[in-house]
Amino acid sequence: MSSKAKSITGWVMSGLVGLFMIVGSGSGKFFDFPGKAEMMDKLQIPTSLLPTVGVIEITVVVLFLIPRTSFLGAILTSGYLGGALWTHLRVGDTWFFPIIIGVWMWVALGLRQPAIFKLALGQSTDPKSTAN
Fold first, then answer.
1. Which of 3, 5, 17, 66 holds its CA 20 to 30 A away from the CA of 37?
2. What per-residue string of b and e applies to 107-118 under the rule 16 or more CB within 10 Å gives b?
3. 39-57 pLDDT, tens per residue?
4. CA-to-CA distance for 106 and 70, rounded, in angstroms?
5. What would the pLDDT profile of 22-45 be if each residue is shown by its tens digit?
6. With bands split at pLDDT 50, 70 and 90, how would you rate the model's confidence at 128?
7. Phi, psi (rounded to 5 degrees) for 95
8. Does pLDDT of 79 surpass 80?
9. pLDDT at residue 87 above 70?
10. Minimal CA–CA distance to 73: which of 81, 115, 27?
11. Residue 106 to residue 79: CA distance in whole angstroms
12. What is the 3-state secondary structure (H, E, C) of the chain?
């Protein structure tokens, strides 16, 4: 796959992460919908905390989507998803979805910025280095 095709694929994947986490998950923390109170009771999260959690979720994902802050955003989003994982594990709920989103996000970032894959594989990112 050409580097342009990888970059486009990475941006499409990043857009899907952003769409899901901002529109599907983050914005839902600001609006009332049927079953929301019951879901938060099951997860043992007070509904009064949801706006704060929503702001955090949207902020870290926006940082991920901005090229200059994408690495920081990916790290912070990973932390957020780790908290989501723990929340679901703690109450015996389905727990693997935050892992899938996190892996998808890092693959998307690696396609957008190939240095991420090189670092993950222990390869040099220094263009002057002869050891790959």
1. 17
2. bbbbbbbeebbe
3. 999 999 999 999 999 999 9
4. 10
5. 999 999 999 999 999 999 999 999
6. confident
7. -115, -10
8. yes
9. yes
10. 81
11. 13
12. CCHHHHHHHHHHHHHHHHHHHHHHHHHHHCCCCCCHHHHHHHHCCCHHHHHHHHHHHHHHHHHHHCHHHHHHHHHHHHHHHHHHHHHHHHCCCCCCHHHHHHHHHHHHHHHHCCHHHHHHCCCCCCCCCCCC
Torsion of CA 87, 16, 18, 100, to 10 degrees: 20
Token pair in block for residue 27: 């914005």
Q: What is the pTM of this model?
A: 0.88
Whether 106 has a pLDDT exceeding 70, the answer reads yes
Please name the amino acid found at residue 64.
F
The answer to whether residues 6 and 114 touch, using CB atoms and an 8 Å cutoff, is: yes
pLDDT in tens, 88-101: 999 999 999 999 99
